[in-house]
Design brief:
Elements lengths: L1 E5 L3 H12 L3 E5 L3 H8 L10 H10 L3 E4 L2 H4 L5 E4 L15 H13 L4 E5 L7 H12 L5 E5 L9 H6 L4 E4 L3 H10 L1 H4 L5 E4 L1 H32 L3 H9 L20 H14 L5 H24 L8 E5 L15 H10 L3 E5 L4 H7 L4 E2 L3 H5 L4 E4 L4 H4 L3 H7 L4 E4 L6 H6 L3 E3 L13
Parallel strand pairs: 1-2, 1-4, 2-3, 4-5, 5-6, 7-8, 9-10, 9-12, 10-11, 12-13, 13-14
Helix pairs in contact: 1-3, 5-6, 10-12, 10-13, 12-13, 13-14
Length: about 450
């Protein structure tokens, strides 16, 4: 088979590389000539473990190619995937579908024979129907079907998620399109991956409902953590106690400074707007959005309180800037809310992140960026841990104390053992755990 992937960003590049690993011929097309040039030179524009090797091997094998020329790429393709960005639209929170619709118009102009057009981008209910309308407007004679095939990739483990997914969701209404998608995903069918065939609208809603439910679990445990601090309970024991219930599950019950990233913030907001327009408001998700926004801001006061009520003139060492480890993605990261507010209040912020500092420099120019965790901590008035990279987990509490100017640690990811930190002479603050706790995340 041959497929075309429109968009060589996170979803398009990972999906294209993984399909090519299945033996499919994949042409990745993007309008960004610099990005295509980098990919042709073997440079990967995003950080994702294992992706560089996958792209290199399949490019060398001739199964994966990169181009800015959609018309040439479409020759012989049985399916074309739309994998462009759908950011939140300024002003109202709706998903901005302009890139999706532009891709649809460009696809229509290149169609030659029956083709399956697949929306891989995260799009609101009704987008597939509109894509079909656009193509018919441009090319009334075209033979095609529109399919919804949402992605469920976690940044940092995206390749494994694609190769060994929990499920594949395919929204389509014709047997012809089903056959194309079955053949495309045959390698996963052979390892008994569940494939959910459904309608267009249902498939589109599954993606938003899944992300919103996970965001709700995160927000729930964050609010439970706040209650734990008030009543002297341990949030990790609570998470373990409820997570062992198979109806609830253990995942996404880790307290922290609020969720970020490319999916949860924009998808929850888009679902809220869709539901409001359909006159079926989702009050729970509305509160999730509001609670998560407020939580990021509230983390500033945790830092302020830990250093005596005022950060003016204080040097704050920050470890971790990305919204999660094993990615360079800074989108909606809690650091983008917390650190500028600390700077505004007069703090000097010194930060280190293994992968995120390039993008962070563009968005937070007033922060000082360091070459290592030790450089950031040296002589600082406190340490603020924001992202739980593995290399930060391994830090020796005694070494932390020796490096800091004052022995204050604010751990917003509950990476460290409170008893060990206090045993090393550190004034340690975490999330949802009592002073004497020695609990570890569930």
């Amino acid at each position: 088979m041959k497929v075309v992937m429109i968009g060589a960003g996170y979803v398009g590049l990972v999906s294209g590389a993984c399909f090519s690993e299945f033996g499919v011929e994949v042409a990745c097309v993007d309008k960004d000539a610099n990005k295509i040039r980098e990919l042709l030179d073997g440079r990967i524009p995003i950080y994702e473990p294992g992706l560089e090797d996958l792209v290199r091997d399949n490019s060398k094998a001739g199964r994966l190619s990169f181009s800015t020329d959609l018309n040439a790429a479409m020759a012989g393709a049985e399916a074309v995937f739309i994998a462009v960005g759908t950011p939140s639209r300024r002003g109202d929170g709706h998903a901005d579908l302009s890139y999706v619709y532009q891709a649809a118009r460009e696809i229509a102009a290149t169609l030659n024979g029956y083709t399956v057009i697949v929306t891989k981008s995260t799009v609101p209910v009704g987008t597939g129907r509109r894509v079909a309308e656009i193509i018919r407007e441009v090319r009334p004679d075209a033979q095609f079907d529109v399919v919804s095939n949402p992605e469920f990739l976690r940044e940092g483990s995206a390749i494994n998620d694609f190769m060994r997914p929990d499920r594949i969701v395919i929204g389509t209404e014709t047997e012809r399109a089903r056959d194309v998608m079955r053949r495309l995903y045959r390698p996963l069918y052979l390892i008994e991956t569940p494939i959910v065939f459904t309608g267009l609208e249902t498939s589109e809603l599954i993606k938003y409902a899944a992300n919103s439910f996970l965001a709700t679990k995160i927000t729930f445990i964050n609010e439970i953590a706040d209650l734990c601090e008030k009543v002297g309970a341990d949030v990790h024991d609570v998470a373990r106690g409820i997570g062992l219930d198979g109806r609830i599950g253990r995942k996404f019950l880790h307290p922290g400074p609020g969720f970020g990233g490319s999916c949860f913030p924009k998808d929850t907001l888009a679902l809220v707007r869709t539901a409001q327009e359909a006159d079926a408001p989702l009050r729970i998700i509305e509160q999730v959005v509001a609670s998560n926004d407020a939580r990021k801001v509230s983390m500033v006061s945790r830092v302020t309180n830990a250093v005596g009520g005022n950060v003016r003139g204080k040097t704050i060492a920050v470890l971790g800037l990305t919204f999660k480890p094993n990615t360079d993605d800074m989108r909606d990261s809690p650091s983008l809310v917390i650190l500028p507010r600390l700077v505004e209040q007069g703090a000097k912020v010194r930060a280190f992140d293994p992968e995120g500092m390039g993008e962070a420099r563009k968005q937070m120019p007033d922060v000082e960026y360091c070459g290592s965790a030790e450089d950031a901590m040296s002589g600082a008035d406190c340490l603020l841990l924001l992202t739980e990279w593995n290399e930060f987990r391994a830090l020796d509490p005694r070494r932390i104390k020796a490096l800091l100017g004052k022995p204050v640690v604010i751990d917003l990811r509950n990476v460290y053992n409170p008893a060990e930190m206090r045993g090393a002479g550190l004034i340690y603050t975490s999330v949802g755990r009592p002073a004497g706790s020695s609990s570890e995340p569930a």
